[in-house]
Amino acid sequence: MNAVILEEYREDPEVVIGTFIAAILIGQLMSAVLLIQVVSRRGVILPTGFGLLTLQILAYSLFTFIPPDHWLLIEASSGMRGIPAS
After folding, report:
1. Rounded to 5 degrees, what are φ and ψ at 3?
2. Which residue would you say has higher pLDDT here, 1 or 81?
3. What phi, psi does 74 have (nearest 5°)?
């Protein structure tokens, strides 16, 4: 039954992108909780981890919405870069 539900929403870009973003956020939050629980007494590792998390989110956003002009980031089916504004 789950396959039928997933098949129905497979072509909907909002659902696909939303699921992808939700999965990343859940994974990052779980990692942050583990980092806080395990390394709460070390003063350098926690700020460094949050700084790297911030850089990762910034890089993800930039490569998604303003990708550089590189052949690896061009969509094969449409020839466009990034998410279309339409």
Report:
1. -65, -35
2. 81
3. -90, 130
pLDDT in tens, 10-60: 566 777 788 888 899 999 998 888 777 765 556 667 787 888 899 999 988
Residue 79 counted as domain residue: no
Q: What is the DSSP letter of 71?
A: G
Q: Is 10 exposed, middle or buried (0-12, 13-18, 19+ CB in 10 A)?
A: exposed
Q: What is the pLDDT of residue 1?
A: 43
Number of domains comprising the chain:
1
C-alpha radius of gyration, the chain, whole number: 17
Q: Give the residues across from 74 on adjacent strands.
A: 81
Helix 45-65, helix 13-38: angle, nearest 10:
170
**Can you read off the two tokens belonging to residue 20?**
């992808």
Host domain of residue 9: 2-73
